[in-house]
Design brief:
single chain; 289 residues; alpha/beta; Rossmann fold; 2 domains; three-stranded mixed sheet; 10 strands; 27% helix; binds S-adenosylmethionine
């Protein structure tokens, strides 16, 4: 399969597919994402704003599997759930129009659970049904696969060659303890912040083999609450590092972002990425993947 990774970010889909797949293009408009992607995968990113992209722009890549993680803000409560009326859903509509025109062999999509039953979902359903695709959707959290890192997401896979019943292989057992680095004082949470949000922070213990984190978002490190878990390690409270979060998503042990990116940007990139464990599982339904 010739793979197209649209809205590529740091390339969670590339990791889920593994070596042996022919990535024809990773597309993202963001400079930091493009830099991180190239650093991680040794593959350049096509920096392009898909907001105005026409079918013939997509056509030249001759991709047969199109993966996309379009922006989630049009579907979130914080983003006011404006769905197709949100400007940030325009690029998604462009991709759907290109699918309609070019009919690639297979499609995969990841988004927040609120994408389900949205007008955007209805739009892509209509095109896929009219063009004869088999479609499967599901809401999946990696915890259902034994991965102790919550990230419930909506997944859609579609294929013109039919879909298979996923064999549902579970990843090797993993624990938070496998992903942790030693205590880093630069990640320590100031006492005042810990006191101010006492009781509102989700804290896991480094010594707890059963520890399960809540979902890390792109706001981790900036928003004190509802953006991810904290770690109690050696009796002190700290933030998780971007590398630890990436490992919990299924990125490699030696995951590293480019020098000089800055921690805030690093949290944003990993917090916007995806669970490689869950995507690998869902892609198992597409023949030839
Ligand atoms: C939810 S993130 C996808 C993350 C990705 N799945 C990963 O594994 O890191 C959405 C990405 O879409 C990109 N993006 C948003 N709007 C775009 C547009 N109009 N054109 C191209 N890329 C866009 C953002 O820069 C961001 O990296």
């Amino acid at each position: 399969m010739r793979v197209f990774e649209l809205f590529a970010g740091i390339g969670g889909c590339a990791v889920a597919l593994g070596p042996g797949h022919s990535l024809v293009a990773a597309v993202d408009q963001d400079e930091a994402a493009a830099r991180a992607y190239a650093h991680l995968h040794g593959h350049p990113v096509v920096r392009h704003n898909l907001h105005h992209a026409k079918a013939r722009w997509f056509e030249k890549f001759e991709a047969d599997f199109w993966w996309m993680s379009p922006p989630c803000q049009p579907y979130t409560i914080r983003g006011h759930q404006r769905d197709l009326d949100d400007r940030r859903a325009q690029a998604f509509q462009r991709v759907v129009a290109a699918i309609d025109a070019l009919q690639p062999r297979a499609i995969g999509l990841e988004n927040v659970p609120w994408f389900q039953d949205s007008r955007s979902e209805a739009l892509i359903f209509e095109v896929l049904a009219r063009r004869g695709y088999d479609v499967h959707t599901e809401l999946l959290c990696p915890t259902a696969l034994g991965v102790p890192a919550q990230r419930r997401r909506y997944y859609l896979v579609a294929s013109r060659d039919g879909l298979t019943e996923a064999a549902r292989p579970r990843p090797e057992p993993v624990r938070w303890q496998d992903w942790l680095a030693p205590f880093d004082p630069s990640l320590e949470v100031p006492v005042e912040l810990a006191q101010r949000y006492d009781g509102a922070l989700h804290v896991i213990d480094a010594d707890d083999p059963e520890a399960e984190s809540v979902c890390f978002t792109g706001a981790y490190g900036r928003s004190p609450v509802h953006a991810g878990s904290y770690l109690r390690q050696d009796g002190r409270l700290r933030w998780f590092s971007p590398v630890e979060i990436a490992r919990s998503l299924g990125f490699a042990e030696d995951f590293a972002l480019p020098e000089g990116l800055g921690r805030e940007k690093a949290y944003k990139l990993v917090g916007n990425s995806l669970s490689v464990f869950a995507v690998r599982h869902v892609l198992g339904r597409i023949p030839g993947i």
